[in-house]
Write a structure and sequence with these properties.
The chain has helices at residues 46-63, 99-105, 134-139, 145-167, 212-215, 221-231; strands spanning 3-9, 13-18, 23-28, 31-34, 39-42, 70-75, 78-82, 85-86, 89-96, 112-122, 131-132, 171-178, 180-183, 186-189, 198-202. It folds into two domains: 3-82, Phosphorylase Kinase, domain 1; 85-219, ATP-grasp fold, B domain (D-amino Acid Aminotransferase, Chain A, domain 1, 2-Layer Sandwich). The protein contains six helices and 15 strands. The protein is globular. Residues 90, 92, 99-101, 129, 175-177, 197-199, 211 line the site of cytidine-5'-monophosphate.
């Protein structure tokens, strides 16, 4: 697979065209950002750890019947993915209240949410990714109602799968963000699933094992991502 030219570079990943017009190379970099890019740092080995973590989760989801953009690992820090038409939407599911939900609504941190709470956000850094609903999505043409329904249903279906997956590793899946896109008319899970985009708490101690370690300066960020990977049975290569 030939890497041709960079088409986008985000806060933590870059995308490159390839000799296959409908396939892209997704490169995970060591760059780490929080608070809409206000806190930035390069963390050694993050690109490698997150690329292989994402591959493991995407392959697990595929084994459970979830269709994703992930094709295969190309190297320790690069993956091959399908080129999608992305929706400018972030889908969040929360099993426990924390983060922006507590700030916005004054909810007690750690409150168990049963049933899980689903929220749409607009993917727009300049606006600070505001909370939106189905009506905004339809009125402004960000997706059809059918596609919005499909994204919500898939995000909740993935929640059922991943809550059990992380429970096996003695972890609570607190919340996470997913993005979707279309490939040849089909809705596929896109972007990534790594500890950068979810919250994971140790089941016994409630220790934070995700990007909150970076946001809150708790230290050992990538070592902790690696420990999560190990508990899930991953063999992450750092060479
Ligand atoms: O910030 P908030 O509490 O709304 O985040 C909910 C979940 O979505 C967290 O797991 C967070 O890491 C993830 N998220 C993300 N990217 C964003 C916004 C939220 O990965 N732009």
């Amino acid at each position: 697979m030939e890497k041709i030219s960079q088409i986008t570079t985000g806060k933590a990943k870059s995308l490159y065209t390839t000799n296959e017009p409908d396939q892209l190379i997704m490169e995970f970099r060591d760059d780490t950002s929080a608070f809409d890019g206000k806190k930035m740092e390069a963390l050694d080995n993050k690109g490698k750890v997150n690329n292989q973590f994402n591959a493991f989760v995407m392959e697990f989801l595929a084994s459970k019947g979830i269709e994703t953009h992930f094709i295969k690992l190309l190297s320790n820090h690069e993956s091959l993915v399908y080129k999608l038409e992305m929706f400018p939407i972030e889908c969040v599911v929360r099993n426990r209240a924390t983060g922006s939900l507590c700030k916005r609504l004054g909810i007690e941190d750690g409150l168990i949410l049963d049933p899980p709470l689903f929220e749409f956000f607009l993917k727009d850094d300049e606006l600070g990714d505001p909370l939106i609903n189905d009506h905004h999505i339809e009125s402004f043409g960000w997706a059809t109602q059918e596609d919005a329904d499909a994204m919500r249903d898939l995000t909740l279906e993935i929640n059922d799968i991943l809550v059990d997956f992380f429970k096996e590793a003695n972890l609570i899946l607190v919340d996470y963000k997913l993005e979707f896109g279309k490939f040849q008319g089909k809705m596929l899970l896109a972007d990534e699933f790594t500890p950068d985009g979810c919250r994971l708490w140790d089941k016994d101690t409630l220790t934070k094992m995700d990007k909150d370690r970076f946001r809150q300066d708790l230290g050992n960020v990538i070592e902790t991502y690696g420990e999560v990977g190990e508990r899930l049975g991953m063999k992450i290569k750092l060479d």
